[in-house]
Hints:
The complex is a heterodimer of chains A (about 425) and B (about 150).
Chain A (H helix, E strand, L loop, with lengths): L8 H8 L8 E2 L2 E2 L1 E2 L10 H14 L9 H20 L7 E4 L2 H16 L17 E5 L8 H10 L2 E5 L9 H7 L4 E7 L11 H10 L3 E5 L11 H4 L3 E5 L10 E5 L1 H6 L10 E4 L4 E3 L13 H17 L1 H20 L4 E3 L11 E6 L4 H10 L2 E2 L1 E3 L4 H6 L5 E5 L6 H12 L1 H4 L5
Helix pairs in contact in A: 2-10, 3-10, 4-5, 11-14
Chain B lengths: L2 H6 L2 H9 L11 E7 L4 E10 L2 E10 L2 H13 L5 H15 L9 H5 L15 H21 L1
Antiparallel strand pairs in B: 1-2, 2-3
Helix pairs in contact in B: 2-3, 3-6, 4-6
Bound molecules: pyridoxal-5'-phosphate.
Amino acid sequence: MELATPLADAEVLRLRRDFPALNQQVHGRDLVYLDSGATSQKPVSVLDAERSFYEHENSAVHRGAHTLAANATELFENARATVARFVGARENEIVWTSNATEGLNLIAYGMSNASLGRGGADAARFVLTEGDEILTTEGEHHANLVPWQELAARTGATLRHIPVADDGTLRMDEAERLITGRTKLVTFTHVSNVTGVLNPVDDLVRMARAVGALVVLDACQSAPHRVLDLAALDVDFAVFSGHKMLAPTGIGVLYGRAELLDALPPFLTGGSMITTVTLEASGYLPAPQRFEAGTQKVSQAIALAAAVDYLSSVGMDRIERWESELGARLVGGFSAIPGVRVLGPGTGVHRAGLVSVDVDGVHAHDVGQFLDDRGIAVRVGHHCAQPLHRRFGVTASTRASAYLYNTTADVDAAIDALAGVRAFFGASS
Amino acid sequence: MSGDLAGLYQQVILDHSREKHGFGLAPTADASSHQLNPTCGDELTLQLHATDGVIGSVTWEGAGCSISMASASLLHDLAPGLTYDEARERIALFRELMQSRGAGVEDEDELLGDAIVLEGVSKYVARVKCAMLAWVALEADLAQLDAAH
Ligand SMILES: Cc1ncc(COP(=O)(O)O)c(C=O)c1O
């Protein structure tokens, strides 16, 4: 097989012209956007896709027989097929949600409803009772923690977590101990949004399978950045958000293995997800429609497909390699600055293109403000991962996260700026 | 560095953020409140010590950015000798100053003392909460004293 040429600065600079928001100045400096882990910028093709839908096809999908409705439905379902291909899934395994958070809640509430007896015998595998355990990790985004806390509280199940080691990796010895016959669900992030660590999906899936537990993968920080084959990873459910992968806000994806989605009781109910409705009771459509109640996020789904097309045209393998290079450059540069501590793996460890740091004597907010003054956009705070920050003994950190439109010059600008922070705030040791 | 950043982080502010006047909680207080800024995790407990309706001192502990720490330190310097009503007036004025988006407010020098160095914060909407943290805590303390009467 012929290997595609790796991404390099020259090509990245050409790609960047596709992103209008990146072409602006902040405080008189060219914007250096290193906050794609929070949300990505959008290429013109994505903006055009959404606009074009409203200019030509706009109408209700799956309802009505007129031409516009038929065209809209076709675009909407084609979008589903595009996204399915992108992550190694079948079309009926892709459910539109508004974001990853909603996807995780959909699973949790589906299980909750199963535990109340909804869904009958088919839903038995989703039933949780006292004595059952849900297993998450210490390194999760709150979106993959709070819904499980609530589910445990509603069902009487116990929530446990796999601890995180000093280097940000999961304590797999503990995972081995914690995954038992009582474990009904194991849920974890593919890539940490704080440390950039890649969790060992294969090992966790193997352990979960051995005890018959379901596996949920939070793919928020992987789907936008690396080749993803959910069928090959053999997880039961996965979620991700469109806005982190060049698409608009308001669209996300829940993946579920077909047989599971068809057995899981619905979360939101109402129009468009039913078969026969009487005044007393209703029948539900198979997945994915049974989880898509109400008017759908049509233009956003179509725009997400355009985003996926954009990513695919660049090549996810090339994007993955480029970001791993940028990640290595970031971690190398940051960790060489006196008083700067990288949270998680240091240099020489394979990582995603994001790095969070604690700056000794300077609060993350002040770090972020200083960088912003140089036109550099980074994230400060706990990044919706308070337990993980507590694990590292800090309440907040500063995170730089790269994407396909970032150059080595962007990374160097961030390193250079960070090197000036402690002196500015008088924190020099 | 832009002029705005220099205005935000004036030397007085950086000094206060390190010196933290009034830092350290007393074993008892007439009122005490804990404030949290959930977006960034800044935390602050502020105690009020008063006699006959006049503030004797405020003491505090907390962790946060330089703006929130400096603001608490500056409040410590400002508060002693103020009646509750005067303190409330200062808090209202400081809030107005923070919401002025760089325009400032009348009588600020006279009533807010050194705390006017925080005026630059008002240009940074995202940081106003940091500057307000200690002042909101004092407001809550005063409300506690009112409720006790
Ligand atoms: C790892 C991870 N999980 C979940 C989320 C939640 O995504 P959203 O807010 O789009 O639902 C994020 C994004 O912040 C994330 O990084």
